[in-house]
Design brief:
12 helices; alpha+beta; 2 domains; 6-stranded antiparallel beta sheet; 316 residues; Arc Repressor Mutant, subunit A; Jelly Rolls
């Protein structure tokens, strides 16, 4: 894991490379006499970044005193979302006259080798960007040569509550890294790639109200990466796009286990792993599992195992 905080001269990160052409076909993103033409490396200012073998996360702060036309070409699969903004941003692929307007929480799913241009008004914005090792992403996403122009355009406004929440979680991990940050980044990155793969491969609308192996795998990875917050049935149901009651029923039908019992089992497994595989103090473990106090964690652990967390740690 590599952490970089408050960097004032930012190099171009590995997910980007400068575009070869600044003029976009059509007129909607042509620069005005008051606009600056710049490359992505001149624009971005990294607040923090987190690297693993498969995943690259960057929190960036962008402050422009004047309107800007930005050109960039990802050479890896990239997911990005806008955290805050006083700027107005319009963007689109070169050669496609359709443009989109960015909004806070809007997720961009960008594919490699396609140049994008954006027009940014004067102001400031903060973004979280996650890109992936090409071979690793390809093993999950599959070939990209079948992607249609409509899919490319729609991917610039990728509607996924799961990916939005994961990107925000990864931002916190990059800004405030801990012993498990790299593991969390890989796990949550895997979940996002699975979601992208499902979207890309869906040629017809999928039936609503179903729970399949895909939903179960997304929940598995989400729970594995969750830290500092107790999992809730309502949140898991939302990730799957289902009502809480219907989700609980479908989950039980699929696993033959109530969702409440499944959550307790996963939390206990994580607790045992943290006790045995790390030297973290009890207070930190309790926090990571979403308990308000170490006393509450100890009580819950004792009820489940018949022993206290410290007794369990010493006995192994």
């Amino acid at each position: 894991m590599k952490l970089r905080n408050h960097i004032k001269s930012c190099e171009i990160p590995p997910s980007w490379e400068p575009g070869a052409t600044l003029a976009m076909e059509g007129t909607q993103l042509e620069p005005s006499e008051h606009s600056n033409l710049i490359r992505s490396g001149e624009l971005r200012d990294a607040l923090a970044s987190l690297h693993t073998d498969t995943t690259f996360i960057e929190v960036s702060d962008i402050d422009r005193p004047s309107p800007t036309i930005l050109a960039f070409t990802p050479h890896r699969i990239v997911l990005s979302t806008l955290i805050t903004a006083t700027s107005r941003i319009q963007y689109g692929y070169v050669g496609d006259n359709r443009i989109r307007t960015a909004s806070v929480g809007n997720v961009l799913f960008m594919l490699p080798g396609r140049e994008i241009q954006a027009r940014i008004t004067a102001g400031r914005m903060c973004t979280i960007t996650c890109s992936f090792d090409t071979d690793y992403a390809g093993s999950l996403i599959g070939p990209l040569d079948h992607i249609t122009q409509d899919q490319l355009h729609n991917a610039l406004d990728f509607r996924s509550a799961l990916i939005s929440s994961i990107l925000l979680r990864l931002m916190q991990e990059a800004l405030y890294p801990g012993a498990m940050s790299a593991t969390l980044a890989d796990s949550l990155g895997h979940s996002m790639l699975l979601e992208c793969a499902h979207w890309l491969r869906a040629r017809e609308p999928q039936p609503s109200g179903v729970f399949t192996e895909r939903e179960f795998e997304i929940i598995e990875h989400y729970l594995a990466g969750l830290t500092g917050k107790a999992p809730s049935v309502a949140e898991l149901a939302s990730i799957c796009g289902l009502s809480e009651r219907y989700f609980a029923k479908l989950f039980r039908d699929f696993t033959r286990m109530p969702i409440s019992q499944y959550i307790k089992t996963k939390q206990l497994t994580k607790a045992k792993a943290l006790l045995l595989e790390t030297d973290l103090p009890l207070k930190e473990i309790a926090y990571r599992l979403g308990y308000s106090t170490s006393t509450n964690f100890t009580s819950s652990f004792r009820n489940a195992t018949g022993t206290t967390p410290m007794q369990f740690r010493r006995s192994q």
